[in-house]
What does this fold into?
Amino acid sequence: MRILIIEDNPDIAANIGDYLDEKGHTVDFAGDGVTGLHLAIVNDFDAIVLDLALPGMDGLEVCRKLRQEAGKNTPVLMLTARDRLEDKLAGFETGADDYLVKPFELQEVEVRLEVLTTRGIRRASKEIQIGDLSFNLDTLIVNRSGQDIDLNPIGLKLLRCLMEASPNVVTRTELEKQVWGEEMPDSDSLRVHIHSLRSAIDKPFGSKMIQTRHGIGYRLVESNAVQT
It folds into this structure.
């Protein structure tokens, strides 16, 4: 396994790391929450050992940002000296998969990590991500550049259709069918709703993701993509 240890106590981090290294695992380290979150986002780890009390950003915030903002499902084993039920529930609510109270046996750390990775206990999030735009199909939360975007039901349907097809063009007829079914709207309805969607998705961010193919339809691309 490739494991990230986010722990500010160098002795604890070294003990866990040495033990896992001897067992044949690859270990990376971070001594604060900000660095740990960055490493967790830009790398693909099999599991993360995350201390709760961290400088810069605590473990709860690291886990929350990892799940909700970065959309990463890497299994997280949270370490803490706090053994109250409220503390454990707080960890699980932010997205932790397991909880280990200090002091602990190093063998138990490895066993718990192996269980997390082999069972794949985290259900894959039903989320579409295009560039800095994400759409969680379970919660219907749309987010761009860390900012939540409110859309009406038709806007959500249009966005889902465009994101699932991205970067391909979706014809006007197909969009109308996906949104309204057999009850086709008047000729201006789609244009009006696309305009509203652009106002929410593109206008506040200064870069366009929704592109028009005149006489054909629309497509959604990453904001830095060149329009052709």
